[in-house]
Every structure is written in structure tokens, then in C-alpha cells.
Design goal:
The structure is a homodimer of 342-residue chains.
Chain A (H helix, E strand, L loop, with lengths): L10 E5 L4 H12 L4 E6 L18 E5 L5 H7 L5 E4 L5 H6 L1 H21 L4 E7 L11 E3 L12 H24 L2 E7 L1 E3 L11 H11 L5 E3 L5 E2 L1 E3 H13 L5 E5 L5 E2 H12 L10 E3 L14 E3 L2 H7 L7 H20 L1
Parallel strand pairs in A: 1-2, 1-4, 2-3, 4-5, 5-7, 6-15, 7-12, 8-11, 9-14
Antiparallel strand pairs in A: 10-13
Helix pairs in contact in A: 1-7, 2-4, 4-5, 6-8, 8-10
Chain lengths: 342, 342
């Protein structure tokens, strides 16, 4: 199994590592005996705070660098066996800055792959997205790995983001063909969990609902609440990243989604109930229209992002359901706020 | 009709102008009274030869510049009312140089749109491609403007090319939304005609068949010849470009294809017959496998690229069928070779 890369004893670089998924994956790799984990980040979106809990770990190293500067990557990846490529603009930041977003999501990936090739890394795991299936009413039913990219009616930034991820995947495939670089593409669905940020359009449903309920306001539902979302818990993704390195699989792209999809109304009710666990009676959600100027990603159809191919390719399936994952997210937020206030 | 831009009396810049489509469109715009046509090209793919017949035209100006250098574009587009964006790597060149290809097809488009915005140009026509529907056996039936992008099984360079055109279209849409820049996207099918080059994967069927027959060799068909191709004659496209400027249409993307699709076997037989018109009996085609290492784009399904939306949006439909278009292409080749030999 030449494409299997054991975690124990090997060095890993997480490009875009000072992040939700980066910090969780660093912990996962360190727990499984990685010789060293380098978190490479320019701290444009990443934060010291996201990795504060790991900072003093003896086998963790934080490197400030930029994916747009190949020399930064070449130095950071010397001696690395595996690279996890997370650095990316998502839809909201792509909307604010399409120049920077296309740079990072395309040239940044080329630079990271070139660094992996030049330093003879053994395997790359590329964080892609279910955005490669697009958005809108035609995205319905089971989303499987050969579902095409639907873009009609989606906001420009969402299409730029999805297409940039399609390109990132193909760049991996191209490096595999030309240079034999092994890789696994994981198409993440919307991530949530401890150290949640405010940058992912779909995860905003969770964190904004939580914030409103904590302020004593009624939670808001955009539209009629029947829209499907399919999230994945960050700890499940960290495990998927590790297993993608360890598996014999190469030259493959698979979905990583949580146990089941949820409607936005169910989600808002669930967050409301969990956030109010301290005592308040759960307030009823308020149904509101779209906020002007805000990019929200909607899909008219009910869909499920199939993750069965991931089980076949890397032996992974999601273990944490939304209720458990949200409990952990909320416990983390309350712990943080408790510490902040104390 | 604020988005209608009359050709007569106005200045136009054709970015990537020293080309098959660029030279034909320059002629079309000059014939319709354009005050000036600037052909902007870095001559990486474009050639002096492609525009030699126009070079001495009093209202034509050739500007050497690069789409990767915004200052070049800012200077060339001063006072321009309309920009036609042709500069692009196609699949074969994307395969040779994905770094340069993604630069030109994405950053180059951003630079050109930025120059149009900064110089207050009135309208942009962006040359997209039917590659935005992808390739492979799932691309079948009528390809209409909301057909999604299928990529499974296509070579990386073909997907990079298609996705880069999807991004180019969205960049136009984004500039329209943010800055009110009017635009029409024309999704060209494979172009052929006078001044045909060897850079388009699908047009190679025409030119290679012609070359073989002229050398007295049997023409070759890859596979069983049942594969569909849908070409468009360059003169029809030049007219489409002009009509896209003149039409009231804006913020729209439409297909531009020829009157009807053709199978590769029909195409090879037609070119063989026309190329042999000088006297030889038409040789039978030879059925061969794929050449290793050569990117050929195949579609298992029979398809037609619908052009009815273009008629509704800009009043255009194709007028030149394959037999007539190929006659013109061959007459041009024979004239050129005659002159070359004389």
C-alpha cells in the first residue's frame, strides 16, 4: 500500500492550520503520534486563538507564512511526509474580495502542491467542498461524487468558490498524473463544532441562533425553514483527514458529511433548545425574509450528501450527530465566555 | 436601450485579437463602421500572420500587451466603448501549462474587466465556451444554457479549462452587479474557418484530416466515428460578437453554435471529399485508437448545442453550414499554400 501514510512518527504540515478544522486535525494527528505538526498560516482568517490550546504542545510548530509565496511553503514543508491543504476563501470572503479569493484557492493550491512535489512529500489531503455540486433548486436528492456542478441562479461568489474548488481538485489530479503525488480529496460539508467562527455562510445559522437566544432574543429563520442543510462535526472531519493519510486510497475524491441532513427550522429549534438549557423556556422562532446584501446559500430541494464512498475509500463514517455536536459547540462557547468574564 | 452599443463611430478593443476569431471580428466591426479597432495581443498564441490581411487598415491598430499586466490593458482601452475578451488558453495549452492557463483565463479576465471599469467602457463581450457543460458520456441531448457542468472522467486540463470559463463568466456577472458594467457572454462551440490554427482540440479533426488527405494519406478516425461534434463557422461568430455589442441584452450568457452537429465520421468524410476536390478519388478513412498522451475530448452521447437563446437575446443565428464553411477554410488554405509555393 504505497499510498498509505502512517501518522505515527511522521511530520505533517497543515496549510491554513490556524483554523477550526486545522486545530482539530492537529490535535488528532498529535494524539496519533505524529512526530511534528506544523501549522502554516498567514493569520488573515486564522487566529492565534484558534490554536491557543495547542500552542505549547512540544510537537507542534506554528509557522507564519503565505500560500501566495512559494518560498514560504518550500521552507515550511521541508521533511514533511503529509500536507493537509485547508487554506481557502469561502463564499462570504470570496464575495468581499474575489481577487484574493481566486489567488488563494487556485494559485495557493498550485504553490502548496509544488512545495509537496519539490520536497517529496508522500501524500496530500485536499479540503474541497460540497460547493462543487453548486447550489439552487436543481441540487436535490442524493449528492454523490459524480453529481455535476449546478450554478444557475447562485450568487457569483458562490459559483466562484465552487469552481475554485473544482480547479483545486483537478490540480491535485494533475500533480498525481504528472509527478505521482498521492492525494485524497475530501469534500467537506459545512463544518461546525468547538472553535466555530463566523466565516461560513451556512454555519451562521448555528452561531447566530445561539447568539440571539443568549441575548434573550427570538431566533430567526430565513424563508419557511424547510431548506435542507447537511453539516459535519469538526471532530469527525479531523478523523477523516487523519484516515485519508493512513488509507491506501489515492487519486480519489469523496464526500464527508454528518450522519444526516437537517432543515433550517429543525436546526434553529435544536440550537434554541440546547442554548436555553440553562433555564429559559425555548422561544419560538421568528420567520423573516432575506437580509439585503447578505450572501445566504439556499437550495430549494431536499438533499442528502452521501458519505458512503468515503467509507469505501478511507474507512470513515461520521459518528457525531447534530445534537451531540451542538452540545459540544455550546459547552465550548459557554466555557470560553465563562473564562472571558472571569 | 442603455446596454445597446452601436458599432458605427465607436472604438473597440479585442483582447487576444491576433487570432482566428479576433481577426474575423475586427473585419466585421470595421465593415460596420467602427471608429477604431485595437487588436491587443502578446503574440504568445496570436500571430502577425493571423492579422496580416488587416494590418494596413487605417482604422486598425495593433497593440502588443499582456493581459497579466493591468497597465498594458489600461492604456490600450482608453476611450474604448466596447471590449471583446478572447485571450485564453484552451484545453491543449492548459494541459501544457496549467500555471499560465489559470493566470490568463482568470486573472487576465479580472484585469480586462478592471480596465473596462476604470476606463468606463460601455460593454464587454466575453468569449466563453461550451466547455462550461463539461465532457464525457453524461453530456448528451440538448445542451442549453442551464445544463450543469459534468466533469467526471474528463482529463484534468479539460476540467481546468471549463471551470476557468465558468469563473470568467461569473467575474463578468460580478462586475455587472458591483459596477453596472454591461456584458454579454457568448459560449462558443468549436470554431473553424479561414486562418484556422492547430490549437483547438476539436478543430484538429478538420485540419489534420485535410493535411493527411493533401499528403496523399488516408484520413484517420479516432474510435468508431460516432462521436458528436458541434462546430461554428468563424464568420458566424464574428457576426455574433458584433450583434452582442449592438443588442440591448446585458447580464446574459448564450450559446453560439453552428446550424447542426456532425459526427466525427461524417466530418472526416466531408473534409476528405472537399480536400480531394482537385481530382483524387476520396480515400476511405482508417479507424485508429487514441494516440497516447494526446488530449482528445470525447463525448459518449449524441448532443446538440442549442443556439435558440442567442436568437432571443441578440437576434443571432448561424448562417453557414459545415459544407460551406469547410469550402471556405479549404479555399483559404489552398490560396495560402499557393502563395507560399509561388
Amino acid at each position: 500500500m504505497p499510498a498509505a501514510l502512517p501518522v505515527a512518527g511522521n511530520r505533517f504540515v497543515i496549510v491554513g492550520g490556524a483554523s477550526l478544522v486545522g486545530s482539530a486535525t492537529a490535535g488528532e494527528l498529535l494524539d496519533h503520534g505524529a512526530a511534528e505538526v506544523v501549522l502554516f498560516d498567514n493569520f488573515a482568517f486564522g487566529s492565534e486563538q484558534a490554536v491557543a490550546h495547542l500552542k505549547d504542545h512540544p510537537r507542534l510548530r506554528l509557522v507564519r507564512g503565505d500560500v501566495m509565496r512559494l518560498p514560504d511553503l518550500l521552507r515550511a514543508t521541508e521533511g514533511a511526509a503529509g500536507l493537509l491543504l485547508l487554506a481557502a476563501y469561502m463564499t462570504l470572503s470570496m464575495d468581499r474580495d474575489p481577487w484574493g479569493g481566486l489567488d488563494v484557492n487556485i494559485r495557493g493550491v498550485q504553490n502548496a502542491l509544488e512545495a509537496a512535489r519539490a520536497n517529496r512529500a508522500r501524500k496530500v489531503v485536499f479540503a474541497s467542498s460540497n460547493a462543487v455540486y453548486g447550489y439552487g433548486p436543481k441540487v436535490a436528492g442524493e449528492l454523490v461524487e459524480d453529481t455535476p456542478f449546478h450554478s444557475v441562479g447562485a450568487p457569483p461568489a458562490a459559483i466562484l468558490y465552487g469552481a475554485s474548488k473544482i480547479i483545486g481538485e483537478q490540480l491535485c489530479r494533475d500533480y498525481h498524473r504528472r509527478h505521482g503525488l498521492d492525494y485524497v480529496v475530501l469534500r467537506y460539508s459545512t463544518v461546525y463544532g468547538e472553535r466555530q467562527h463566523y466565516r461560513a455562510a451556512n454555519a451562521l445559522y448555528i452561531i447566530e441562533t445561539y447568539d440571539r437566544v443568549r441575548r434573550g432574543e427570538r431566533p430567526q429563520v430565513f424563508g419557511d425553514g424547510s431548506e435542507t442543510k447537511h453539516f459535519v462535526y469538526v471532530g469527525d472531519l479531523a478523523r477523516a483527514n487523519r484516515m485519508a493519510f493512513e488509507a491506501a486510497a489515492t487519486d480519489v475524491a469523496v464526500n464527508c458529511s454528518g450522519p444526516a441532513p437537517i432543515t433550517t427550522l429543525e436546526l434553529v429549534r435544536l440550537v434554541t433548545r440546547l442554548a436555553g438549557a440553562g433555564g429559559h423556556p425555548a422561544p419560538e422562532p421568528e420567520f423573516v425574509g432575506e437580509e439585503p446584501g447578505k450572501v445566504r446559500l439556499t437550495s430549494g430541494g431536499a438533499f442528502r450528501i452521501a458519505h458512503e464512498a468515503a467509507e469505501r475509500a478511507i474507512g470513515w463514517r461520521p459518528l457525531v450527530d447534530m445534537e451531540e455536536g451542538l452540545r459540544r459547540l455550546i459547552a465550548w462557547r459557554e466555557g470560553k465566555e465563562g473564562r472571558g468574564a472571569g
